[in-house]
Specification:
alpha/beta, four-stranded parallel beta sheet, single chain
């Protein structure tokens, strides 16, 4: 028993590159725990489950041509890896299988390729954001998009904002103080400027001067769908853009659990990028709530004012991969007056871009039903979540405001967050 625990700890610490990920399949004992907890397998019989699509199939997987469907039905939520008692990197094994299937098989379809480039969609739509948002609200047009690109007509498309955060940040006056870097990714400027503004204002309030080194996309949608060749080139450009911040000893803060997990581990596991520059950046990246909890609990405790709100917190799937618990929950519990309830759902269903594809949409909606039912029972005033795609899906499914934890903290501080 002691030897088994030691091995699991070793794998956990060295689960950094492709070879180690694939080697972890030898630890699979076919216990079935991953299958029992898999949100996709629970709602459809088409998916044989993570054990069969991951370590079991990997032992025999020889791909010459054609298309293997089972790994493609995996949403990439990572529940399987988090519950595995033997520390098998199941979700990463499936991600690597997707890559081989797509590169040696039929390739990534046009609609998915478009979804894999959210910064391009945001840039094009941001030229005339109001027109874009109005057009995408027309059901007939969404039906045509579904027919042409296989993007479901009811999938939760976010609004585009046309570089609103960047314009605000250029005009914003900051205090002098220690400098931290904020990695906005592609979502903040294109789709979620209010989250970025709240993060910068909160860091300024805590005494920091904020640097925004880049708004490049982390390319997680590409990694999740198997489009790894362009993802590798884009990842290299992003690492180079962030490396100077890491070399200067700055923390690189992210308000997206998906983006931060990609930088921390996915480049190593999915792209085999393990050079010094990648390691420097991975070690410098920190989740926004993790950073606040580690360094500023006392300051926040002394400043937060009561908020008489019913708050539901939903932990995004990618948060599990960080192995840091739920720092947002600890921060929210510092706010006096809120009635906080934690989501009982493992996944909201959307799975990044997974639920956008018309063949996956019904599966995604079935997975998210538990969260929707809990929202109806609890009737929250606001739903808090760390991931942008989850928030967009939650709003679309429930019509209730969904915000990032730092936005609620700013409200409790009585500060403007937009």
């Amino acid at each position: 028993m002691e030897q088994q625990a030691s091995t699991a700890f070793e794998l956990r610490e060295t689960e950094r590159d492709r070879r180690t990920v694939l080697r972890s399949m030898d630890q699979c004992t076919k216990c079935g725990i991953c299958h029992a907890h898999c949100p996709v397998a629970a709602v459809t019989g088409e998916f044989p489950g993570p054990m069969y699509s991951g370590p079991q199939a990997q032992r025999f997987r020889v791909i010459k041509s054609g298309f293997e469907i089972s790994p493609m039905l995996c949403s990439g939520c990572g529940v399987c890896t988090s519950v595995c008692p033997n520390n098998v990197a199941i979700s990463d094994i499936i991600a690597l299988a997707k890559s081989e299937i797509m590169e040696k098989g039929r390739g990534v379809q046009l609609g998915q390729r478009l979804l894999n480039r959210p910064e391009l969609i945001g840039w094009l739509g941001g030229v005339f954001p109001r027109l874009t948002n109005n057009l995408l609200g027309i059901s007939v047009l969404r039906g045509i998009i579904e027919w042409l690109l296989d993007i479901h007509r009811e999938a939760p498309l976010p609004k585009v904002y046309g570089r609103q955060f960047k314009r605000w940040f250029i005009r914003h006056t900051q205090p002098e103080g220690p400098v931290v870097s904020y990695f906005t990714g592609c979502a903040i400027d294109n789709y979620d400027p209010d989250v970025g503004i709240a993060m910068v204002r909160l860091l300024n309030y805590l005494g920091y001067r904020v640097d925004v080194p880049t708004d490049l996309c982390c390319s997680l949608p590409m990694l999740s769908s198997g489009e790894t060749t362009p993802a590798r080139a884009r990842a290299r450009v992003l690492v180079d853009a962030l490396h100077s911040s890491a070399l200067e000893g700055r923390k690189i803060i992210s308000t997206s659990t998906s983006c931060s997990l990609t930088l921390r581990s996915k480049y190593a596991t999915c792209l085999d990028m393990t050079d010094v520059g990648c390691r420097d950046v991975a070690n410098a990246v920190v989740d926004a709530c993790e950073f606040l909890l580690d360094r500023h609990v006392r300051q926040l405790c002394e400043s937060l004012k009561p908020l008489p709100l019913r708050v539901l917190y939903h932990a995004p799937c990618q948060l599990r991969g960080h192995r840091m618990g739920t720092p947002a929950v600890e921060l929210l519990r510092l706010i006096p007056g809120i009635e906080l309830e934690l989501s009982q759902a493992d996944c909201c269903g959307i799975g990044g871009t997974y639920g956008y594809h018309k063949n996956n949409y019904d599966i995604a909606m079935s997975i998210g039903k538990m969260l929707v039912d809990q929202v109806r029972r609890f009737k929250p005033d606001v739903i808090v979540c760390d991931s942008e795609t989850c928030r967009w899906n939650i709003v679309a499914r429930t019509s209730i405001e969904s915000i990032h934890p730092v936005q609620l903290l700013m409200r409790a501080l009585g500060k403007k967050s937009d």
